Amino acid sequence: MAVFQATRTRSTHRAGLHEITEEVAGELARSGLSQGIVQVFCPHTSCSLVMMENADPSARRDLEGWFDRLVPAADPNFEHTAEGPDDMPSHIKMALTRSGESIPFCDGKLLLGTWQGIFLWEHRRHPHRRTFVVTVLGE
Amino acid sequence: MAVFQATRTRSTHRAGLHEITEEVAGELARSGLSQGIVQVFCPHTSCSLVMMENADPSARRDLEGWFDRLVPAADPNFEHTAEGPDDMPSHIKMALTRSGESIPFCDGKLLLGTWQGIFLWEHRRHPHRRTFVVTVLGE
Amino acid sequence: MAVFQATRTRSTHRAGLHEITEEVAGELARSGLSQGIVQVFCPHTSCSLVMMENADPSARRDLEGWFDRLVPAADPNFEHTAEGPDDMPSHIKMALTRSGESIPFCDGKLLLGTWQGIFLWEHRRHPHRRTFVVTVLGE
Description:
Chain A is α+β, with helices and mostly antiparallel strands. Chain A is 25% helix and 40% strand.
């Protein structure tokens, strides 16, 4: 058993889902490990991770739209608004999804389903430079 | 430290929660490992995993009913409807819950709470044959 | 590679977020391990774990308030009410967040973001004594 760890960055030019499956698979390949778990971690509180359908862009648009309707920016109940109207909705959308996702791998390949991708979900409207940590545990 | 990995299948005859705690515990027993983490992964985008109260069936029915009201099938905003009205709600319910759950174990036993079970949540109405991957990391 | 595991308890005097970052960091230090993954697990079905902004208390109050409005206690649809009106909402809030959170570490330090803390979220109104399991996998 061994540990491999790498940090990647991704610039997000807009709110919404940004696929990072290839970056994660690339770090797994670099680890040289054959079987175990890859953990992806997002050290931010206004973006998050989610597994999602990766074939039809309309599925991602519908997911983003539904979350926008569930957590409207103009909620008069919010007190934490110092960074603008998308500040508190971003934290809530992060809490409803994940800061970490773990994916098993075998024969050096992620055991993802055919239609399954790993996405960094930017919840802020303005461009950000985001980091994620890929940790591979296995043999 | 060692890795053990197994793939299981479960036929889901209806939408809702299907307990898989025994299958996961069975794979842990087969691993022969004593202490570490069991990770369960669901390689689908229209079903998911959730930890839930496993004693009173009404708690599971209330959870299913609440999610059905939160994400109604007949939402006119949805664009991704090729596979029917339960297509997009399934992806949303998956994103709101988990594709992976990790449970610690000690002395070869899952450290679950008294009322805690691991459930595969089928979000589609029609029967499906679902897969889940159990990975045990430990010693 | 090695495994370290410890169980901690926390008394919750009120519903809401209770930060446990220091306890988790303390167990990581006790493990003596340098690089890998820390997994925190909550063996309860009416409280949960969440990563959240740890600087401004208003962000946590807004998150709690938003969840209370999303899952009102007085929902006449609920059948599972034996333990009171906050019984079923607690299970739902648990399902919407996490029973387990995993955080990578390097050089013996959690790779948390600047504003990121680990919180035990008590969903019941009355005081409870809660347990969480910290498992460290690494080298």
